[in-house]
Design goal:
By secondary structure, the protein is mainly α. It folds into two domains: 263 residues, no CATH class; 75 residues, no CATH class. It has 23 helices and no strands.
Length: 454
């Protein structure tokens, strides 16, 4: 019982450390899509460009009272997994002091607090990765704990559209590896991960069907893919080849395709793209374009080359470089928070973010240096790297990061927050192992001195 109390206290304290950026800001960090999630939370609308589940998370975790509760809830979930991950890497029983020292180190030298302090579904990407790593490598977990890990993974998948494809690809690669190595246990675990992902897909399709949106996973997939074609230049090439041969409304926009995908998806007033009639009316034409691109060797080659380049570019976003959104007093999406949490308006207005005086760039040099130096230290000095389990954890971690970069950059856009939301786990792992090395070295030295004294 005492042990359980200690674990709860550690998790609560760790959650408070993860919220340090929110405390410094004076209010939870507001992201570019926060207003959409908050609106979904209280209107229960199913939007075509995102799942509704982070909105539901905000609705229930805020207790209809304060967004501080939401930030604490998501930080607590992450803290529980992170502290368990620390114990996993420590291999033996990790003391309270060691766990808290690791949390302080991770909070200080990675961008985790910027992620956990922000009202965005991005928080559930590290939750997803940690859940998968614990499910795969926590050999001491009971059957109930394994079920809990799967439950956490399912919830995390539901929070962002990209998670379904990330887990599906990860499970597929894990299955192939296990099949080659003839590892029955890993085959079973990869199948469980795949089935968990498919169950969410079915759930999302059923939800859309219940809202008369058809039995589809996402009603906006066609828009995201064509917007990606627009960003990468594939759409311009396609229009040059097809206009005059096919009756395409998009030909009216030839030569006027915006450089950024969000300008394509949400065109500005006066843009020719507005003549397409919106997401739903443009769907048949866009689906035809997608079919043509993926069945034509010329465009397939372009798509593959662009995918490799964008995946590499996405992988390079390893620190928090995205300055929090500044909301002017008359900005329409600012009013969404005030609409549902009106009693926090003054606190919201006083925050550093809404006074445009908070910027993560000053911290990035420390984050980057810690990642580089800790990685060099692990490669050169950590003898425990020969441990097969540690090596497998690193491999799974890196594979997940590559898949995350591929999925988000290829089917959405290259964006700093898509990679930094989860990349911090890599330097965090380095930090835990380094602290473990010096803690054991210090402990062994003390033990030697005591034995010599005796």
């Amino acid at each position: 019982m005492i042990k359980n109390y200690k674990q709860i206290i550690i998790a609560f304290v760790a959650a408070l450390f993860l919220m340090v950026v929110a405390f410094y800001n004076g209010y939870p960090i507001y992201g570019g899509d926060t207003h959409a999630y908050v609106n979904t939370a209280f209107t229960r609308d199913i939007q075509s460009d995102r799942t509704p589940f982070y909105g539901m998370f905000i609705r229930f975790s805020s207790f209809w009272e304060s967004l501080w509760f939401t930030i604490f809830a998501q930080s607590l979930i992450l803290a529980c997994l992170l502290t368990r991950y620390i114990e996993l890497l420590y291999t033996k029983k990790a003391g309270v002091r060691f766990i808290l020292l690791c949390v302080i180190c991770i909070t200080s030298f990675t961008c985790v607090s910027w992620v956990s302090s922000c009202l965005m579904s991005d928080i559930f990407t590290p939750v997803l990765l940690l859940g998968i790593l614990l499910y795969l490598f926590d050999g001491k977990a009971s059957t109930l704990q394994k079920i809990l890990y799967i439950g956490i993974i399912f919830i995390a998948i539901s929070e962002h559209n990209s998670h379904f494809l990330i887990v599906t690809i990860f499970a597929g690669l894990l299955f192939l590896f296990a099949l080659i190595k003839r590892k029955i246990t890993w085959i079973k675990k990869s199948v469980v991960l795949f089935v968990t992902s498919v169950l969410f897909w079915l759930s999302m399709c059923s939800l859309n069907y219940s809202y008369n949106n058809g039995f589809v996973f996402s009603g906006g997939a066609h828009m995201f893919i064509v917007a990606k074609f627009a960003e990468s230049g594939i759409l311009d090439e396609y229009l040059n080849d097809s206009c005059g041969k096919k009756n395409l409304k998009l030909c009216e926009c030839k030569g006027d395709i915006p450089a950024y995908p969000w300008d394509f998806m949400w065109p500005r007033a006066g843009s020719k793209l507005n003549n397409l009639g919106g997401w739903e009316k443009s769907k048949p034409e866009f689906q035809m374009i997608i079919h043509d691109v993926f069945t034509t060797p010329k465009y397939i080659k372009m798509f593959i080359v662009k995918s490799i380049i964008t995946t590499f570019k996405q992988m390079c976003y390893i620190v928090e470089v995205d300055k929090p959104v500044f909301l002017s007093p008359d900005q329409w999406d600012r009013t969404t928070v005030i609409k549902y949490f009106g009693d926090e308006e003054k606190e919201f207005d006083r925050s550093r973010q809404n006074n445009n005086i908070i910027d993560p760039s000053c911290c990035n040099i420390f984050y980057y240096l810690f990642f580089v130096l800790s990685s060099i230290w692990i490669l050169l000095f950590y003898t425990g790297s020969a441990n097969k389990r540690i090596l497998k954890i690193y491999v799974c971690l890196v594979v997940f990061l590559v898949i995350n970069a591929f999925v988000t950059s290829v089917f959405s856009t290259v964006c700093d927050r898509f990679q930094e939301r989860v990349f911090w786990i890599l330097p965090a792992t380095n930090g835990i192992l380094i602290l473990k090395y010096y803690q054991k070295k210090y402990f062994d030295s003390v033990q030697l001195i005591i034995s010599e004294a005796d």
